[in-house]
Each structure stands twice: as C-alpha cells, then as structure tokens.
Structure of Sulfate permease, SulP family:
Amino acid sequence: MFDRVPGRRLAQLSPLRPWFRTVGRQTLGRDVVAGLTNAAFALPQGVAFAIIAGLPPEFGLFSGIIITAIAAFYGSSGLMVSGPTTAMSALLFATLSEMAMPGTEHYIALAITLTLIVGILQLLAGLTGLGALIAFVSHSVIVGFTAAAAIIIAISQLPGALGLSGVPQGDTPSQLLHVIEMIGEVHWPSLLVAAVTLGLLMGLLHISKKIPAYILALGAGSGLALLLGAETAGIAMFKPLTSVVPGLTLPSVSPGIWSDLLPGASALSFVGLLGAISIGRSFAYRRGERYDANQEIVGQGLSNVVGSFLQCYTGSGSFTRSGLNIESGAATAMSSIFAAGFLFAGLLILAPLAQYIPIPAMSAVVLFVAWKLIDKPMIRHIFDSERSEIFILAASFLSGLLVGLDFSIYVGVVISLAVFLRHSAHPVVASGAPTMRNGRKVFVNTELHAVPECPQIRTVRIGGPLFFGAIEAVEDELSRIMARAPAATDVLLSLKGVGKIDLSGADFLIKLARKIEGSGHKLHLIVANPAMLHDLARLQVTQIVGADYMHTHKTDAVAAAVHEADEDICARCSARIFHECQLKKGADTMHVTGPESSPI
C-alpha cells in the first residue's frame, strides 16, 4: 500500500509532467476555447463560493486561479478542473464559524492556516500512496454530506435573498426558525431582485448550458437593483474588492491553532480527495486513459499548500467546471491553465463592477448552486439499492444537518467501513454441480437450481477473502451445506474467488482437511493464482492437504475425486453428473438420469 520508492516520489513532484507530450497545435486551439468558456463561468461562481465560505469575494477568485492552475499542472486528470467548490466552501464555513466571526481578519487567518494543513495532509497522503484507501469509502457518504451542505447553504442565503437584516447566527435549525419568525419583515425590492436573478438563471441554463447564464443573470439583477434605486431603496450591495492581485499571506505556525484546526482539516482533506478522485477517475474511464489517484492527490495537495500563501482557500475537483470543460472541447490540462489566465484577466477588467452587484442577486445564484448540489438521480438510485447504502446516506445527511458537516464525514466513513468489513466477513459460500444449459454443461448453484449432486463428492466455492473475520461465517455456511450431504464425502473446495488468505484462514483449511481425512475422505483444493499457491505453501496448507490434492483446474479435481470414489456406491448411483462417472462401475447398465456426457 505504501510507496517506498524515492524515485517515484521525486517524479510526482517533478515540473516535467508526462502530459506535456499531448500538447500540440491542434490541442491548443481547443484548450483556449474551453479555457475562455470556463473562466466566464468561474467568475461569478468564485464569488458565490467565497460567500458560502464566509470569506471576501476575491478569495474565491484567487482560488479559481491559483488552485486551478497548480492542480491541473500536477494532477493526473487532464480534463478535471479544480478550484473552490460548494461542498468544500460549506465545510470550511462549518469548521471555522464556531471559532471566529466570518469575514473578520481572524476568520481569514484561520482559513489560510486551515488550507495549508489540508494541503500538507493531502500531499503526505499522495506521496505515501494512500490513494487506494479512498475506494473503500462508499459514495453514499459524499451524496449525503453534499445534500446536507446544500440545505445548510440554502438556509444561510435566505436572509440575503429576502432582504432580512439582523438574523442571529446559529445552527441550521435555529437559523431557519429565525428566518420564519422574521418573515413579516421581508424587503420586497430585495426579494424581487433575487427572484428575477434566479428565474433568468434557470431559464438561460434550460436553453443552453453554453450560455454565460451566471454573468447574464447577475447583470440583470444588478440592472434591476439600479432601476429600483439600489441602496436608497434598501437593497444591500457588495463592497468593492480590496485587491485584484493575490497578495502574500503567511499561515499561522501556532501549535495551538493547528491542534484546533486539525479535525476540520482532516475532514476537508478527505472530502476534497474523494471528490477529486471520483471526478478524475470517471473522466479518465470515459476517455480510456490511465488514471493515477496518488498523483492526483499530490496535485491537490500542492495546489492547497501554494494557495495558502496567495490568499486562496482550500479547493477540490469541480464536477460542474470539469463537465463544462469537456463540453467545450478541452483536450489537455492546458485548458485549465488557460481558464486560470483568462479568469485573472477578467478579474482585472471587471473588479470595479463588483460594487454594483446586489447581495440578493448573489444570494439567488448561491441558492441555485445549492439546489444543483443535491444529486437527486443518485439519491433515487441509492434508495433502489441496498439498505446499507440507504443507511449510510441517511446517517451522513442527518448528522451533517443536525450536528455538523465535519462530524457527518466521520460518521459516514465509520459506517461505510463497518459495512465493508461486514460484507468482507460474509464471503459467498455455495455448492455447485454441473447441468446442461443451452447445449453445454455448466456449473450452477445447487440450491438455487435444484440440480442433482454426486453422493460422494461435494463441490464448494468461496468468493471473498478468507481472513480471521470471515472464518466463523464460512464455517457456518460450509456446515449447513455439508449437513445435506451423506456422512462420508470428498470435498472439492474452489479458492479461485479468494483474493487473500491469512493465518486464521490457513488454520481453517488445515482443520477442515484433517476432519475430512478422519472420515476416510479427502479435501481437494482448486487454486489457480500463483500468489495464493505461494501463500498456501508458506502457511503449511499444501503440506497438510498434500500436493496431489492441490489442483489448478476444476476438471482435474473432479477427475481425481471420481477416480477415488467408491465403486459400489457408483454402481448404484443414477445421477452420473460428471463426465468421468461414465467410466465407473455400472455405467453400462445403469439408466442415467443426469446430463449427457460432456466435459466440465
């Protein structure tokens, strides 16, 4: 699991990236167009995400420049676009809002330090090869977490959209209750601006996703606010951006602050990596490309580390911007780098216009982003799947909504790992026998298909790891299967579906072999994997079972077992389910009810 090759670690940090070879004249043209389209989308999005995070608007824009460029440069996915995201912004706000007032200098300083810690944790994970561990966490955790984040975000933006001032801060249920209590104080001009912005945004996106709907909707909302008299009419407006060029920031090195931020940083690191790897892997699969999860983690970590020194806050892979990148014809990672450059140019040009954006209009945009954040098709799919996934989803959602987003991550991870271990501890144990299907003989589950079995041989397969946690379940199932068999039978145990075996698994096989041998019969093991054969020899299983009873093919095991079968029992048997049974005593006179002679 851990990567101990120093050369590989240096290659992960090398400025000479493998994707450079994919860049050419044809790709550059496509990447420029995709980058420009992405920058137009990221400009209002960055401001909205910064508001969700409780930070000045420029932090979202700087993150959309610095983090986007570095993550693309060092990441594994050429088409995934990173930067500020809704989920990361909401989780950062949930982590820091209890430590400091959002928007204050202390809050900003904590966000910068938190971003550095997140980057370091991610960088260490990538350099030590921990990317594979992400695959063990159910996707239902993130679906539940993001749904909770969406509701929290939406409730936090209601005061801005409704023009309510003085709404007390607090947990989500309390804040919603305060908004309901103050509903009679709604500022109608602010609500009108929010409604027009939201309606136009939804309409434009319904027409075409390539339309710069966010910019046009914000422009319409701003124009309406000016027509209504803006601040004289009581409509709150944005303050001018304090800077348009990222400045140098120095994260805190206080051990006390790091200790306080570490739990939240761990949750942010995990959410960021799970999101980025999921997006990057799905896009790589579509394009038939190789994907290196650990390299992606390194890219995410470096982007957050560098970003923490340049007025950025923690980011991750953005599914929306990544999808737009592909739809716009992006070919290489240069599309993200172009997007970062165009976003910086747009910031320089449009920064003076920020003061004309009404807060109700931006709140409407954030409300729409929150609604889109809820993955409704996936939620329906989860409810149609296993109950364990529904439980993981519900636990992550409710704990995030009622306790805290960072806590919901830990709840979801613990439950999903518990479910994984439970499944691993109950591998498939099934008996099989051959029967005719579509003119050929195949092995099927004897209990499901009610096919006849040999009275002297039981064929059983195990599907799943044979480790200490699974032994009890395997023993119970095997005992149940053998209870249906005559007292004395050979057992053909297929281990082809067993990917891993430990000392407890080996001891189980040894005890089983001795028990069967004590009844005058034999245990035959079917193993084809060289690594498994090596482990069985190392753990003394081969010596106890006997090399002659270790088979690489089911056909060989059946032939050996049938050859040793009792001739008198065979003479009275009418099943004759194996091809080799036709060579046993009585085959020429017995009326055979089993399948015709055919190789297994």
About this structure: Residues 590-600 have pLDDT under 50 and may be disordered. The longest strand covers residues 428-437. The beta strands are 81-83, 316-318, 428-437, 440-445, 457-463, 490-497, 523-526, 550-551.
